[in-house]
């Protein structure tokens, strides 16, 4: 295992975070079960992803990053983040919650909406690296 003095944050790409509604039901979760339900429900599942008001809290949360999924082993798979996270933890001396963080987020929204969550993650990272650190974060305006 290689020693690591830095903080490692895995930030998934667009659609790389699992989304749950306020009752803990999948809104976006690439799993074998979700794939089957999507085939049966057709367009109704896509309507659950629609943002009706960008600034309103619709109760959707992003608790996890998408895991690897093998729908038909060897033929059809979805590369999630479980292999990447597992590899980093096996090869490097990182500890989840100390110097290894994952940052799932609601990818449907403008990144500025998640600013508070970003701030908390970066603060935790900085305080791990230097307990006396002062952290300032900013998401640039777009458009």
Characterize the biggest β-sheet.
3 strands, antiparallel
- What is the β-strand count? 9
Provide the low-confidence segments as ranges.
Answer: 135-143
Q: How many helical stretches?
A: 4
Estimate the helix proportion, in percent. 25-40%
Give a structural overview.
- Helices cover 28% and strands 20% of the residues.
- It has 143 residues and is an alpha/beta fold.
- It has one domain (2-129).
- Strand 3 and strand 4 form a beta hairpin.
- It is flat, with a radius of gyration of 17 Å.
Sum this structure up briefly.
Helix content is 28%, strand content 20%.
Strands, helices and their partners?
Blueprint: E1 2-3, E2 8-10, E3 17-20, E4 26-28, H1 32-41, H2 44-48, E5 61-65, E6 69-72, E7 76-78, H3 82-91, E8 92-93, E9 100-102, H4 115-129
Parallel strand pairs: 1-8, 2-9
Antiparallel strand pairs: 3-4, 3-5, 6-7
List keywords for this structure.
single chain, 143 residues, alpha/beta, 3-stranded antiparallel β-sheet, two-stranded parallel sheet, 28% helix, flat
């Amino acid at each position: 295992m290689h020693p690591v003095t830095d903080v490692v944050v895995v930030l998934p790409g667009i659609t790389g975070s699992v989304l749950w509604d306020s009752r803990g039901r999948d809104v976006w979760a690439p799993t074998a079960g979700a794939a089957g339900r999507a085939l049966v429900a057709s367009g109704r599942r896509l309507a659950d992803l629609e943002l009706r008001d960008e600034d309103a809290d619709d109760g959707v949360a992003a608790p996890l990053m998408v895991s690897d999924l093998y729908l038909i082993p060897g033929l059809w798979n979805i590369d999630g983040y479980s292999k990447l996270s597992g590899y980093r933890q096996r090869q490097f001396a990182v500890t989840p919650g100390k110097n290894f963080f994952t940052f799932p987020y609601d990818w449907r929204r403008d990144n500025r909406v998640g600013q508070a969550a970003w701030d908390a993650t970066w603060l935790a990272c900085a305080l791990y690296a230097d307990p006396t650190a002062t952290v300032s974060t900013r998401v640039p305006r777009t458009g």
